[in-house]
Design goal:
It is built from ten helices and 43 strands. Strand 24 and strand 25 form a beta hairpin. The N terminus is likely disordered. It starts with a helix and ends with a strand. It is mainly β and 850 residues long. The longest helix is centred in the first third of the chain and has 16 residues.
Length: 850
């Protein structure tokens, strides 16, 4: 298998080399370039254009890899998550907007907007769900896989920098309308969602007050019954506009605005299993999932050029998203329906998630004197993330008596759950560039971040007291049992993990919580020096001091964590220009990776097929990185590159399956060391061009080799502390691949561009992606790893834009409709634990710009 994947990688590389000398290189003009190149853009250069992005990549001392808005528009890419997967070495995690870079997942990456960190919109992730960021409001996405000291040090995969659009050019106003369908959702005769949320997603469901529970008992206002949806057509509406205003003799104010609303319906069905180490199921269910999501986004970007020496920029971005999922499962659940021949377990879960993210930034650039330029950037981010009114029911259907009843399970089998995360995030950057002469530049500065997080959750467990046969239960509406009358009659009680709210409301109604304060102070210095017309070096160092305090009181434990870390992070970047179309680059650096808050806080986070809990003893990994890259720019807008890279990781963090009877996972520093090394290739080339017709391709491939030590002794020793429960693992190997890393990734894009008449254009792009097998969680003993199997995806989009401002598009996403399959790789063979298809998305769109 490894040889076949390596052969595929070699094939991708050989494809590029067949055309290496088919182009004539231009005469060497390096001697004409004297000053150290930066990436500052002046005038009305279109930053999002492909030719400009590649030109900056060629000139920059740092390694730059960007995906521009112009390219994304041609491919019909509407969100940043998909945009990032078009870059080399990136893959999207199934079921989320999170991405893996060079085999390293969410905790190993960082996300910034205009250079400042932004928070995640979901407490289970470190990074924002990139699928909620619309590409219409950005200039480009930067994928910074090579570190330099100006960047925040908490990264080992990459920093993803989202650069918001700054308006240039003529005034305009544009309207976009679109509609699409998911083939899975469309073919369902009946489509259901939970009761409560509305179409636009702005209706907030709040937890009943403590006084209401004390005075009235059962006070939930939303119904247990499903709500039928009759229209399952996705829609989107967006506007964007731009204009400039002259202020005085030198000043110019540019305004860019963007607003959009879109929604999407989805449906999938398939198996969900949990199995033990010999493949015997503890859960064996067939399930259906109805889903509905909304995204409402607004952005304003003001850029005020005071004069040629001073510039101010203000960005304000509000994103409101919601997600509904209604899941229904039937089959076998251990300890619920042991008599599988006559009984079927029924599990229903309705989940509603809302996120409100507010990003604000104010920045300035000031030319103080000829050699000195000052930059500052201040940001305030606020996140309000909630899961209001999650509902779950488990009952048993008896085939013989044709009746439903509750089993003798734990009180949490039937529950309603509310949580809320509030984060206030203050970030800042202040740095200066001092140009000594045309060959030397010094950059130095300070970064600061203070983030305060407050998470609270209450699960109201409905403990059934009535014996089977004494009550009526309709599995299509559990409100037939859980209602005010039955509560008053004592048929069930409402309890939390702290006690019964009827008899002990003072303590029972205290929510689980964890509170965190994180302070990061950092200083850095960086020197760019041109040794000759061909060789430029950048060397620098960064000092990070982190201070994190966590207070928690959960169903697992109550306590405090106070951790401090200091990190010294050197970095070296070398660029050698063979001529003005070929570069050699070498980079070496040290970075670190901090665990997520939810990976640290001892809080149980439960899904239908998995329960995870945090580990307070987790600590950062240290990463040592090296890259060697060759890049060739045959002509404007084209690039061919090959990169070899390696990472040595001390104390890597991994998701693991713990020794338990349940399917529980946690997070540990799993061994003393690990490594990632690989080979990347990128190929952007015009294959055919004549008159107004162009056929072009953009493809990339990545081969990865990863390994990490697995030590149960290390995990046991480090998790046995006064403020932590011992985490027991029993890996069947002493080494294994890194969690989340695929051996081979590939993206192939083929496009046709046709121009005619007065600014009329046609673009047709077909995009194919391949992601090979990757580990979801490390197993133990003979209970093997959970592995997500390889998938292949195909998208196509055709867009026509007329000179009069009218545009049309037709798109097809996920055209291959592959099965997303997860297996447990036991020693006695693979057992499928998840399998479903998402369905194709077929859409049309129209736009008008004036």
């Amino acid at each position: 298998m490894k040889m076949s994947k390596l052969s595929i990688a070699v094939f991708f590389l050989s494809c590029s080399t067949t055309v290496l000398y088919a182009q004539e290189t231009k005469s060497d003009s390096l001697k004409k370039e004297k000053r150290i190149e930066g990436v500052t853009i002046q005038g009305n250069v279109k930053k999002s254009s492909e030719s400009n992005i590649i030109s900056l990549q060629r000139k920059s001392v740092e390694v730059i890899e960007r995906v521009g808005a112009a390219q994304l528009d041609k491919q019909g890419v509407s969100d940043v998550a998909v945009a990032v997967t078009k870059a080399t070495g990136a893959q999207k995690q199934e079921g989320s907007g999170q991405v893996f870079i060079r085999g390293l997942g969410d905790r190993n990456n960082a996300t910034t907007m205009n250079g400042l960190p932004i928070p995640s919109n979901d407490p289970i992730y470190k990074n924002i769900d990139l699928s909620i960021i619309k590409t219409d409001m950005i200039d480009y996405v930067g994928l910074e896989k090579v570190y330099n000291p100006k960047m925040w040090g908490d990264m080992s995969g990459a920093n993803i920098d989202i650069v918001s659009k700054v308006y240039t050019g003529k005034p305009y106003f544009k309207i976009n309308l679109g509609s699409s369908v998911n083939t899975n959702a469309l073919k369902k005769n009946n489509f259901y969602l939970q009761n409560g949320p509305d179409y636009f997603g702005f209706k907030q469901i709040t937890k009943p007050s403590n006084a209401a529970f004390v005075n009235n008992g059962y006070v939930f206002k939303t119904s247990w019954a499903n709500r039928e949806v009759f229209t399952r057509i996705n829609s989107s509406l967006g506007i964007d506009f731009g204009r400039t205003f002259n202020i005085g003799s030198e000043g110019k104010l540019s305004l860019f605005g963007f607003g959009s609303f879109d929604n999407n319906y989805g449906y999938k069905e398939g198996i969900t299993r949990s199995v033990d180490n010999v493949g015997i199921a503890t859960k064996d269910l067939f399930g259906t999932e109805y889903s509905y999501g909304t995204n409402s986004t607004g952005l304003v970007n003001l850029n005020y050029k005071i004069n040629s020496s001073h510039n101010l920029k203000f960005v304000s971005n509000y994103i409101h998203t919601t997600e509904q999922k209604l899941e229904n499962y039937s089959g076998y659940i251990r300890d619920t329906n042991e008599n599988r021949a006559d009984e079927t377990a029924l599990l229903r879960r309705a989940n509603y998630k809302t996120n409100d993210l507010f990003i604000n930034q104010l920045a300035g650039e000031h030319q103080i004197s000829s050699p000195l330029k000052l930059y500052w950037n201040l940001g305030f981010n606020r996140l309000d993330s909630r899961r209001p009114d999650r509902m779950q029911n488990i009952s048993i259907y008896n085939h013989t008596t044709d009746s439903n009843y509750f089993g003798a399970s734990n009180p949490g089998a039937n529950h309603r759950y509310f949580d809320k995360l509030i984060e206030n995030d203050y970030v800042g950057d202040l740095h200066a560039d001092y140009q000594f002469n045309e060959n030397a530049k010094l950059s130095f500065g300070y970064n600061g971040r203070f983030k305060k997080s407050d998470f609270r959750a209450t699960q109201f467990n409905l403990r059934v007291n009535a014996v089977p046969g004494s009550y009526y239960l309709d599995s299509n509406d559990y409100g037939s049992f859980f209602n005010t009358n039955n509560y008053a009659a004592g048929f069930f009680d409402i309890v939390t993990f702290r006690g019964d709210i009827k008899w002990n409301p003072e303590s029972a109604l205290i929510p689980q919580y964890y509170k965190s304060e994180m302070l990061n102070n950092a200083g850095y210095a960086n020197i760019d020096y041109r040794f000759s017309d061909r060789l430029t070096a950048q060397i620098g160092v960064r000092y990070d001091h982190l201070d994190q305090k966590i207070n928690y009181s959960t169903s697992i434990k109550e306590g405090k964590v106070d951790k401090k870390y200091s990190k010294i992070l050197p970095a070296l970047n070398l660029k050698y220009s063979l001529n003005d179309t070929n570069n050699l680059r070498f980079s070496a650096s040290k970075t670190y990776t901090t665990p997520l808050l939810l990976e640290t806080a001892p809080y149980e986070y439960e899904e239908v097929d998995e329960l995870s809990f945090g580990n307070p003893t987790l600590y950062p990994s240290d990463n040592y990185n090296a890259d060697l890259k060759w890049e060739w720019f045959p002509k404007k807008g084209e690039v061919i590159s090959v990169t070899a890279f390696g990472k040595y990781i001390q104390n890597p963090i991994s998701r693991v399956t713990v020794n338990s009877s349940s399917n529980s996972v946690s997070f540990v520093n799993i061994g003393d060391r690990g490594h990632v090394y690989g080979l990347e290739m990128e190929f952007r080339k015009d294959l055919y061009q004549q008159n107004n017709t162009k056929i072009y391709t953009f493809l990339n491939g990545t081969y990865l080799n990863t390994s990490q030590e697995l030590s149960k002794e290390k995990v046991s020793a480090e998790t046995t502390t006064p403020y932590s429960n011992t985490i027991s693992i029993d890996p069947s190997k002493t080494k294994d691949k890194m969690q989340g890393a695929s051996d081979f990734l590939a993206n192939v894009n083929l496009g046709i561009e046709q121009k005619w008449g007065d600014k009329n254009t046609l673009d047709f792009v077909v995009s194919y992606s391949h992601i090979s097998d990757n580990i979801y969680a490390i197993g133990y003993a003979t209970k093997g790893n959970l592995v997500d199997k390889a998938i292949n995806m195909l998208d196509a989009v055709a867009k026509v834009n007329f000179g009069n401002g009218i545009g049309f598009s037709v798109s097809g996403k996920n055209l291959l409709n592959p099965s997303f399959t997860r297996v447990q790789d036991n020693t006695n063979g693979e057992v499928t634990v998840k399998d479903h298809k998402k369905g194709m998305n077929l859409g049309i769109g129209v736009s008008y710009q004036f």
